[in-house]
Amino acid sequence: INQSIKPRSVIGNGQFMMFPRESYEAFGGHGAVRGSVVEDLRLAQVTRELGRKLYLAHAEEVMETRMYRSLGEIIEGWSKNLSTGAKLTVAPWLAPFVPWAIAVYQLVIWVVPPFTLLGWAFGPFGRQIGIWSMSTTGLSLLFWLAMCARLRVLPRFALLYPIGALATGLLFIRSAVRGDKVVWKGRAYRSGDFVTD
Hints:
Strand order of the largest sheet: 1-2
Shape: elongated
Helix content: 40-55%
Order of helices and strands: HHHHHHEE
Structural class: mainly alpha
Number of helices: 6
Largest sheet: 2 strands, antiparallel
């Protein structure tokens, strides 16, 4: 059960969502979130706004999904979702800043240390910077090894975490630059998302 009482603190995953008919009709179903480009998250938030319970279940053993079929679709899909979704999870005054903050976090925490480590190994960086970059990169690698184990991903993929973080940071920047103007599958949208306390 998602026990948060704040709508912006819950999450919904659009691949497979189930509602009792009474609950779904109580908030107007998908019509209630027709102005949202991150409708699964908004459905979860609207459900919580009405005081209803939410359950999030991992069911990877009984179903699977393929969200995108090409690199272009991955870039467009995540550019559509990341900034808007991030804004929906924080207080309205903080929303304009959060996509940029996440991008900076990704780059500074996950990308800068391993690249600094390379610079220390082959370049002019001093000993203190080398120790910092080595320890930070080591801790990050341990974190991603644990995540790979938890998600049942081959451990060797943990070594690629700086590339993934760089891609994620750039996608957040691309999504934030677009703002509320979204283009998806040839159609232009303007997000009308808003979450109350």
